Amino acid sequence: xxxxSEGTNVFVTASPDHKMMIADLQGLLFSIPFEGGPATQITTxxxxxxxxxxxxxxxxxxxxxxxxxxxxxxxxHPDGSALKQVTKGHGDDREPRISPDGSxxxxxxxxxxxxxxxxxxxxxxxxxxKQITSADADEFGPTWSPDGHKLAFVSGIGLNAKTxxxxxxxxxxxxxxxxxxxxxxxxxxxxxxxxxxxxxxQFHGAGLFVNSAQLIVTGSxxxxxxxxxxxxFPTTWLSNSELLYxxxxxxxxxxxxxxxxxxxxxxxxxxxxxxxxxxxAYDFTSTAAHQVKGIYAPALSPxxxxxxxxxxxxxYLMKVGSAPIPLTHDSFYKQGPAWSPDGKKLAYVSDRDGIxxxxxxxxxxxxxxxxxxxxxxxxxxxxPAWSPDxSMIAFQDQGGATLLVKVATGTITPLAPSTFFPGRPAxxxxxxxxxxxxxxxxxxxxxxxxxxILTVDITTGKTEFxxxxxxxxxxxxxxxxxxxxxxxxxxxxxxxxxxYTMAVDxxxxxxxxxxxxxxxxxxxxTYSSDSxxxxxxHDGQLKLINRATRLITxxxxxxxxxNTKPSQRLLIHTERFWKGSGSEELHxxxxxxxxxxxxxxxxxxATPPATxxxxxxxxxxxxxxxxxxxxxxxxxxxxxxxxxxFGRLWLAYGITEIRAIxxxxxxxxxxxEAYNSGAAIGPRLFTTGEAIDGERIxxxxxxxxxxxxxxxxxxxxxKALDFDFVKLYVRxxxxxxxxxxxxxxxQMGVETASHYLLPAxxxxxxxxxxxxxxxxxxxAYSRSLSGVxxxxxxxxxxxxxxWTISTTFSQAQYADDPDLATDPRRALSPPxxxxxxxxxxxxxxxxxxxxxxxxxxxxxSTISAVLNDGGTILAGTDSPLDxxxxxxxxxxxxxxxxxxxxxxxxxxxxxxxAKAYGLxxxxxxxxxxxxxxxxxxxxxxxxxIEDAARVQCVMKNGLLLSVGSIxxxxxxxxxxxSICP
Length: 981
Prior knowledge:
Elements: E1 2-4, E2 11-14, E3 20-25, E4 28-33, E5 37-38, E6 40-41, E7 49-54, E8 61-65, E9 72-76, E10 84-85, E11 93-98, E12 104-109, E13 118-123, E14 130-131, E15 138-144, E16 150-157, E17 160-168, E18 174-179, E19 184-191, E20 197-204, E21 212-219, E22 223-224, E23 236-239, E24 242-247, E25 250-255, E26 260-263, E27 266-270, E28 290-291, E29 296-300, E30 306-311, E31 314-319, E32 325-326, E33 334-339, E34 345-350, E35 357-362, E36 372-373, E37 382-386, E38 392-396, E39 402-406, E40 412-416, E41 426-427, E42 433-441, E43 449-457, E44 463-466, E45 483-484, E46 490-495, E47 498-503, E48 515-516, E49 523-527, E50 533-538, E51 541-546, E52 552-555, E53 560-561, E54 569-578, E55 585-594, E56 597-603, E57 614-625, E58 627-632, H1 645-652, E59 655-660, H2 665-677, E60 684-686, E61 691-693, E62 702-704, H3 708-720, E63 725-727, H4 734-748, E64 751-754, H5 757-762, E65 767-768, H6 791-799, E66 803-807, H7 831-846, H8 850-868, E67 872-876, H9 886-897, H10 902-907, H11 911-916, E68 934-938, E69 951-956, ...
Parallel strand pairs: 5-27, 54-57, 58-59, 59-60, 61-62, 63-64, 64-65, 65-66, 66-67
Antiparallel strand pairs: 1-27, 2-3, 3-4, 4-6, 7-8, 8-9, 9-10, 11-12, 12-13, 13-14, 15-16, 16-17, 17-18, 19-20, 20-21, 21-22, 23-24, 24-25, 25-26, 28-53, 29-30, 30-31, 31-32, 33-34, 34-35, 35-36, 37-38, 38-39, 39-40, 41-42, 42-43, 43-44, 45-46, 46-47, 47-48, 49-50, 50-51, 51-52, 54-55, 55-56, ...
């Protein structure tokens, strides 16, 4: 049991007799004596209750609950008993407020499904809700006037509410009560008992975090709260001159006349579970053969006899029943093979000329050496799809736009505007329509929605959305469809992890309900030209389904790989050596490496051992462990446009280990196997597939889970594909998250993490993937909207034994070192990413960064507090949402900027991650028996943290490379070549 005495985003309501309070602390409801004292827990994590509102009669409390995977309004007795669900459906119902007479609950909801939130009322006993407002704006946060005749609420676009409005329930007349300051927003109105005053919260600033938040009272009494971090919840009025509100970690009893704000003390005990389980065992030394599972984007030939796919960083062609044959033999990235309708050509993506572009391969040729890009461009071209007449190929660029290229001329024209990470395009059988999977958000207030089918008329550009099924999604927006059958009768896609088809009309628009074809997890479907067969992936294996009989036939892909390691006795002589933990630095040492492991670390000897096969003179440099990037998406989001550059970029900045969190499953496996086998250059990758999410999703690499059966199918898929981690995302109910935690631990031996502090503490989760990030509530229990984590969050983080990743998103720091934007290693980034870096630098140099640095300082304060109290904080970035590689170094520099010693900051990217993940017997520190993952850097990082980025040479798994050789395919450089030829 961990005891807390403050609350981050604590919400409170009081009984009418002012004897008790109910507080939402960390997603649990507690009853607290009105004068303060020990709190009694009255709800469980599984009930997911928040926003309590005590009725005037004192008999009931209304709450919003996420139990079941959708926000709904519930009631309960003040002791937490007699829970009763009041609203139902697929809409999110939030922020309940009970009417003064106790008969009705007002709430905000998106249940109209027209793209915004409106205000509704419902009888407290249940029944059909009544819609009160219907403007295009998002209207939420309702509160009753004392006579019950009016409702006040906030109105704006998304979360950015700019006014407080009032509506008369008898006349429907609407009046603006409050207008926000220009640089801010308002929330949480509440009327005084006599109705002459209105309290609300005024936020100052905009962006990821606001600068401050204050209680404002206007009307017959005016008052400005003294606390600078008011939480986004309505006050509880005790009288016309006294109220409760929450701010600065406290419940504040406030006298508006005297201006006194008195904290009400409390303590609450939260149950902490630290799981004990056998961790996944890694054999980093074995060279035994492994079956390839990373078969990425397989494509069935038109005649149904061959399969093209990418694996081990090469493009393969395989006759069904025969062994795969590589068509390529280079180190560049490949993606997205697509057969021409006549089966004579393959379109595929390669970055052999620096940028991912579409190439055409004539299958009458034995290799791809003479293949040419059909429309050479300095922008990315991915996910190619042929038109039925073979005259055009549809594809997408790095901005998410869908374009068309004429095969004969290379002329590119736009087709559909940018959407958020759309899936692979597909042509209808008549060639007049293109369909893609893309996000359709429910509202602007919250970003989540469904991955729906968007059709585009090629002639007119008209777009139209179609749901694969009501409130369902295409499983992932990558290779899971939709695809059209060549006979023009249907489209196929993956939904609920299973393979479905849906009939379409002549225009390619769905016109019937989806039909399930199988009962096993499926990915990446493609048709034969006669529409009789569909090829798909199941747990790393190819399958063919007969469309008529539904008979499923395995298609063997006899392809194996071995983990590469050098055969060597290599000695590195260096002036400075840091083990990876502690403050001690050794001088003038020899590091002996046998094959891929460190044999000894000893004082320098004038004569090396006779068995040494190579000696490296590191000179006046520092040898230290390679760095861990603890939160990256190496195979999703912007990373899919980097190609071969991505792995090289990480290494060039000294990052030898990556914990990848949520990626396209088969692309991630393909990269991990390619890196392990030496078929591609990149860090040691610990990865997972898509994150498991709830019914509503946002990113393309989230699995929308709508049933418990699907939930377990997804668990089994992650196990079958042998992933290293399980990510549980923001809309997954806690009861299902706990099942994921238990499965990952007991069946896979791997760790789990989410965005939430509560499951990590009470449900046995291993970590939290950000100090604070997106939450389904719109705010987090680990950090306020002003960027502050109070002692409840800090105590839970430190004492729970979990690990937490700090992802600072601190681009203001580029102004501290502008040379990061001109570093020659930036040539490894694609041009548009360097534009992004230059924009970040320019913004940092030309705008007021005081607020950004204040938030960064606050985060670093929390990090130091947790670490000093024995907790575990790891350095990460959420790249490529933040800029890859350089942002990790900014994270380390921020720690030092705000008080930590360089060695302490470096530990968050060396020894601490290895220990947190149970890998400290092999990684994280340089000592005999450990893997030889190390870097040689100029200068002394233990004196100057900036020197950690001055990487000259990198060794991963015993293979030593200069930074110049890592860069060689994309830029000429001599960095490190004098040390590591």
